[in-house]
Amino acid sequence: MGQSLRIGMVVGEASGDILGAGLMSAIRDRHPAASFVGVGGPRMLALGFESLYAQDRLAVMGYIEPLKRLPELLRMRAGLKRYFTEHRPDLFVGIDSPDFNLDLERALREAGIPTVHYVSPSVWAWKQKRIVKIARSVDLMLTLFPFEADFYRRHQVAVEFVGHPLADTIPLACDTPAARHKLGIEAGAEVIALMPGSRGGEIKFLAPVFLQTARWCLQRRPNLRFVLPAANSQRRQQLELMVSDYGDLPLTLLDGDSHTAMAAADAVLMASGTTTLEALLLKRPMVVAYKMAALSYAIVSRMVKSEFISLPNLLAGQQLVPEILQSQATPENLGAALLHYLEQPDAATALQSDYLSIHRQLRCDASARAAAAVLNLIGRGA
């Protein structure tokens, strides 16, 4: 394989650590002696990644926390820029965390270092003017979804659709009996999974109406059962307070295990977000909902340019699943949409066929395709 290969990488979140570890392994399949340095998480560290800073120092969310941490984040980015310009890698890959990585990528690209950004920001949905900054910052964008790649091509940005690692790891057929056995649910039960999100704000706005919806559905189908996974101990405490007012519901509150909860369900009521992709890959009929403060919604709704908000609909380019938002997200509307799947099994079957087509489209051996793309960029793909 000739001369050694040295690649800089920066990931800011756990999901990026998964992508980074997959990319490292796929690159080493072609270049066993390749070395990696920058900022990485535990999976990457286990593969010999040299992390200059702790990955969790980049894992900030929301609006206030990044502002509080801004001086530290700026010092980290300046330190990384200095390090990579003094110890030049063959290539730099920023994985997600666009607010941090794009500025770093631009500086390194201007210094003559090839740059790749892995995981597109939602530039196709809002703040589309960011495409100008992206074009100046990266030599290549790697996207998880094909509609994202189409957007970049329209704006003459070099792009490669590589697929989604979840589509590689989740089987094409969902094993619902195994999931129900794990949760102690009888095979013939009718089950609805409630997925009101993983953040405190989402729980605050969505969990009450989801529980009201469950009660509305139970009144019409008395044999229903419900499962509600809590993302972590804080969310469980928050949900326990709410669930205490719904003692009439046959509901099981789970510690995590959202994958199993969805796999066990006949239908899923869920917050809009990345978990909708997992539900799609598990072939679960779903109803997507979202609520936020009225002022926030008024601002966000004016900024969003895409017709749909949920990944199933974005991937299909049409409305596959109901999206019920804000004031329309009532127990009656949500409940009727959920029961439609139970009362019209042909509709659920047709939906699952569409899901399977999308799953196959995303099942591309994402890590290997990403590795091939970045190695080809620097002429090391052979």
From TrEMBL:
<protein>
    <recommendedName>
        <fullName>Lipid-A-disaccharide synthase</fullName>
        <ecNumber>2.4.1.182</ecNumber>
    </recommendedName>
</protein>
<keyword id="KW-0444">Lipid biosynthesis</keyword>
<dbReference type="GO" id="GO:0016020">
    <property type="term" value="C:membrane"/>
</dbReference>
<keyword id="KW-0443">Lipid metabolism</keyword>
<comment type="similarity">
    <text>Belongs to the LpxB family.</text>
</comment>
<dbReference type="GO" id="GO:0005543">
    <property type="term" value="F:phospholipid binding"/>
</dbReference>
<dbReference type="Pfam" id="PF02684">
    <property type="entry name" value="LpxB"/>
</dbReference>
<dbReference type="GO" id="GO:0009245">
    <property type="term" value="P:lipid A biosynthetic process"/>
</dbReference>
<keyword id="KW-0441">Lipid A biosynthesis</keyword>
<keyword id="KW-0328">Glycosyltransferase</keyword>
<dbReference type="InterPro" id="IPR003835">
    <property type="entry name" value="Glyco_trans_19"/>
</dbReference>
<dbReference type="GO" id="GO:0008915">
    <property type="term" value="F:lipid-A-disaccharide synthase activity"/>
</dbReference>
<comment type="function">
    <text>Condensation of UDP-2,3-diacylglucosamine and 2,3-diacylglucosamine-1-phosphate to form lipid A disaccharide, a precursor of lipid A, a phosphorylated glycolipid that anchors the lipopolysaccharide to the outer membrane of the cell.</text>
</comment>
<comment type="pathway">
    <text>Bacterial outer membrane biogenesis; LPS lipid A biosynthesis.</text>
</comment>
<keyword id="KW-0808">Transferase</keyword>
